[in-house]
Design goal:
This protein is of the alpha+beta class. About 30% of the residues lie in helices and about 25% in strands. The protein has helices at about 1-10, 15-20, 30-50, 75-90, 220-230, 250-260, 280-290, 320-335, and strands at about 60-65, 70, 90-95, 105, 110-120, 135-140, 160-170, 170-175, 185-190, 195-200, 210, 240-245, 260-265, 295, 315-320. α2 (about 15-20) packs antiparallel against α3 (about 30-50), α3 runs antiparallel to α4 and α5 (about 220-230) crosses α8. It starts with a helix and ends with a helix. The structure holds 6-O-phosphono-alpha-D-fructofuranose.
């Protein structure tokens, strides 16, 4: 049984990544050290999120972040924890966070060969009502020894070497890909360890769930409108799809990854580039979807082929089951 294996085999995330990295003889364990610091950040945020209501951490910090959203104390706390953990790992040179207007350039003595882009607490507007929220991250390698610049993170998602998210919900689950499939680890609070519970996650080729904020329907373009119409009123006699929309990307993407279906945050008249951020929402989730056998599309191209020009750039995104995304690609191709 999984429980027995858990008790005796203890495949922790650190052990799992060490196994993965041992396949690369030249690896010096830098990635494993980087990941262990990301895991530390996730454990801290998980504990803080679970105590938020009690520790009066909810409520406004009185500041607004560059997205113009009111920052909640947990946002600020999570961001501080991740920045400190990543800098202290000594394995990073450039950090981009949803919470910080400018990139963070690590001081020379602590620089390493990775650049990390992350949203420390995505979906944070849901904190006060107890809806699942999460941390999303993507990892690039620094391919030079000169002074690091934002150019080192303004790279297409297809150059990411790893990506993942940690969902703080009924359980705390870290989903990770280092380019060889997608694996899910569940935090065992009694051990303080993430244990491998979902090895080699594959998304179903087709799903019967669509996930979009229908409240934006009046602003959608033709292909998105046609696609959603098709989900609700299928012409070929197939059953209508179910709508599931949490409004927290990590929760919506996690359900899509496990159950199949499609998640859409389209462009609309109000936001011509959609709402979700390329570096630390679109790219990591697209990386995971492709690694799980699904795909991710921007309405114009493969999401991972986007080349961002600004660190907080947005993009429309359609991601999930391979066949479902194919359908919306066909509608955009007709346009
Ligand atoms: P809307 C949360 O604020 C977030 O950034 C994502 O987590 C989520 O998918 C999206 O915005 C929800 O946006 O416009 O539907 O509320």
């Amino acid at each position: 049984h999984a429980a027995d294996a858990h008790r005796t085999d203890l495949m922790t995330i650190t052990r799992f990544v060490l196994n993965e990295q041992s396949k690369y003889p030249e690896s010096r364990g830098d990635f494993t050290i980087l990941l262990s610091h990301i895991v530390l950040g996730c454990k801290f945020v998980c504990s803080a999120v679970n105590k938020a209501g009690l520790a009066k951490l909810i409520g406004l910090a009185g500041e607004t972040n560059i997205q113009g959203e009111e920052q909640k104390k947990l946002d600020v706390l999570s961001n501080d924890v991740f920045v400190k953990a990543l800098v202290s790992s000594g394995r990073t040179s450039v950090l981009v966070s949803e919470e910080d207007e400018e990139a963070t350039f690590v001081e020379p003595s602590k620089r390493g060969k990775y650049c990390v882009v992350f949203d420390p607490l995505d979906g944070s507007s849901n904190i006060d009502c107890g809806v699942s929220i999460g941390t999303i991250f993507g990892i690039y390698t620094l391919d030079h020894t000169d002074e690091p610049t934002t150019e080192d993170v303004l790279k297409p998602g297809n150059e990411m070497v790893a990506a993942g998210y940690c969902m703080y919900g009924s359980s705390c689950m870290l989903v990770l890909s280092t380019g060889t499939g997608v694996h899910g680890f569940t935090l065992d609070p009694s051990l303080g360890e993430f244990i491998l519970t979902h090895p080699d996650i594959k998304i179903p080729n087709k799903g019967n769930i669509y996930s979009v904020n229908e409240g934006n329907a009046q602003n959608w373009d033709g292909p998105t409108t046609k696609y959603v119409e098709k989900c609700k009123f299928p012409k070929d006699g197939s059953p209508a799809k179910s709508l599931r929309y949490v409004g927290s990307m990590v929760a919506d993407v996690h359900r899509t990854l496990l159950y199949g279906g499609i998640f859409l945050y389209p462009a609309d008249k109000k936001s011509p580039n959609g709402k979700l951020r390329v570096l630390y929402e679109v790219f990591p989730m697209s990386f995971l979807m492709e690694q799980a056998g699904g795909q991710a599309f921007t309405g114009k191209k493969r999401a991972l082929d986007l080349v961002p020009e600004k660190i907080h750039e947005r993009s429309p995104i359609f991601l999930g089951s391979y066949d479902d995304v194919e359908e919306i690609k066909a509608l955009y191709a007709e346009e």
